[in-house]
Amino acid sequence: MASVVYFKKLSEQPGCVRYCFGEGPSEMSRTLTIATGSRTSTPDDGDADYTFLKASRKISSLFDERKGWPERGMGVS
Length: 77
Description:
By secondary structure, the chain is an alpha+beta fold. Helix content is 22%, strand content 42%. It has 1 helix and 5 strands; from the N terminus they run E-E-E-E-H-E. It has a 5-stranded antiparallel sheet, covered by helices on one side. The longest helix is centred in the C-terminal third of the chain and has 17 residues, at 50-66.
């Protein structure tokens, strides 16, 4: 069974970047915050479930590839 996660950057400030994410482009109701220094992700609702982990890992992977925080994207597995 395939798993899909979509994400979109909401804001970027010194020290952190925030994203909304969800299982569909119209279902991005959750948010996460990444501490840019340590690249540690935290779900803003406290629920570190599979969807959060997938979004966090995909954002981090794209950061490594592009040398910058992605504006938006999706991950499929």
